[in-house]
Amino acid sequence: MNEENQVEKVEEKAGSDPAVKATLQELVKYGYLEEARKPALFRNAVLHQGSLLQMLEPLDLALRLDTHRGLALLVLLADEKLDPEEAWSHPLVRRQRLTLEQSLLVALLREAFLVHEQERGVGQATAKVALEDLLPKFFTYLPDSGSDQRNEGRLASLLDQLKTHGIVSEVDKNDEVTIRPLIVHLADADSLGSLLRSYQKRVEEGKI
User: Fold this and answer.
1) What contacts 193, CB < 8 A, 6 or more positions away?
2) What is the pTM assigned to this prediction?
3) N vs C: which end of the chain shows fewer Cβ within 10 Å?
4) How far apart, in whole angstroms, are the C-alpha atoms of residue 134 and residue 113?
């Protein structure tokens, strides 16, 4: 076989599975995909997990599947020799840093999501929360502006910011937001619980 034919065979093999290619492109572009939104691509991720892992390994990335919640996401390969902060030095991954208020809201939303799962079962129904229920919980940890309109606007602005991270949906006509399953993988329960306790302590001490 001459060199030209060898090149043709390699190109044919590399492009022989458009399903894997499309799934990989989606994951690299957004960092995750949901079964509810992209069922075909999610199915590809499950069926071709081995191939995707092989493609991602040279990039120091891996695929994590949460089939119970219908979620596939990219994660960095763990390197025990690196400091946790240094492990984020990756040419293809930009760390998403949240503000304190965003982190607080994530903690409250994650708590609501897990309560929903305890009551309805993991992956059994869409998790939603009403703004009127979220608002008083949020301002338990922050100073109240004294204006319902300003408080609602502040919360709405933060929810809109978190929407870009794939954490929540837009506010619907019933003034509810859907909490997306990605939120479970953003941080562990211990760290978020510690954040809530820290906020509560600062409120009690008058530092917020």
Assistant:
1) 107
2) 0.73
3) N
4) 12
